[in-house]
Amino acid sequence: MVAIGGQASLAVLYELLREHPDTTRTELVHRSGLSKATVSENIGLLIAHGFLEEVGKRQPGRGRSQVVLEFKPRARLVLGAQFTEHGCHAVLADLRAGPVAFAARPFAGGSPESFVAALVECVDELRPQADVPVLGLGVGVPGLVDPTGRIVAVSVPYGWEQVPIAEMLEDRLGLPTVVANRAKAAALGEAWRGDHDTVAPTHHLAYVYVGAGIVAGFVIDGEPYFGSAGTAGELGHVTVLPDGPRCGCGNRGCLHMLASESAIIRAVRTGARRYADPAQIEGSPLASLAMLTLPALIDVANDGNAIVQEVVRDAGMYLGIAIANLINIMNPSVVVIGGPVMGFGELLLDRVREEVRQRALWDALRGVAIVASTLNDDAGTIGAAALFLKTVDVATFVSPATASSHQ
Ligand SMILES: [Zn+2]
Hints:
- The chain has 14 helices and 16 strands.
- By secondary structure, the chain is an alpha/beta fold.
- It has a 5-stranded mixed sheet with strand order 6-5-4-7-11. A 5-stranded mixed sheet has the order 14-13-12-15-16, sandwiched between helices.
């Protein structure tokens, strides 16, 4: 038996129930290693507070019939939000981060205050839709967040430094708030809610965001991993081409310079100038090289343009080099790739897989699925809700003293 205190055993059981929402006391005893008495006592508390319900009986083989326990994810709700370059997306979600309702707002300017205002509007729209208490808010931002999840240390897209965003939001909303880099939140979103068709449970997952920046998020043994100072996952600044183009970080040949949105646009420009007869590209979307956008390039690639397709395959090769290294180091069961650049779809993904197959160690590669995000833009929003749920101490809501108020 595991000798842990009352609150700790409650948290262990709560996590197990969240992951296995249809179970029995006997299964919980096996899975948790806790005593029958401890399991029964805590199950009683969770039932009293509406987190669990007894729903019929199950007959395992020739054994005694067992009462089936069903986790009630709608017993409480949480909010998740993510900031993108253009606006705020928020979700009202259940205790398994399942979406109940979404809201979105654009924002003007990039000041922290305009962010807070946009998010407050989203929350004002979502909160009245909650028929049970809302426990708190998780937020994903593009930038480095301190390991306590309170302060955005630096956000290059917004030009923020040391912004106490959690405190600002708590002051306005009166909800406990936790903040993380949005790719790291998205990793948790994919682990909890992504549809990856993998054989193993996604307790070990890497999420790679490829857009204006390239950032990885990790879920290791079911937990989000941030690193000692919160900078884990800066995949955009691993070297994939020694003596390659100089990066803003001071290094040369960073993945960011070879596979990000701006890198792809730059390479298409260079390629079009080098190979194409200007007369041939007259009137094509590549004719105006100064005006190229990623969505336009995705259309052009789908139409079979050889210049763009070659650039995308090159980007896929560099991405594949970085992901092969990541797989060797981390040994995930699934690598999920998301972000705007994944708009190139299989053209990019096939090249990534090909490169990974050539480079990753067979033992690390075995069983790894490399897939496109199925949650797309919602990964960060749903992941932010999951991130908050990770911080919830269920004992705060489930104690004998507070049981009567929820019966
Ligand atoms: Zn760099």
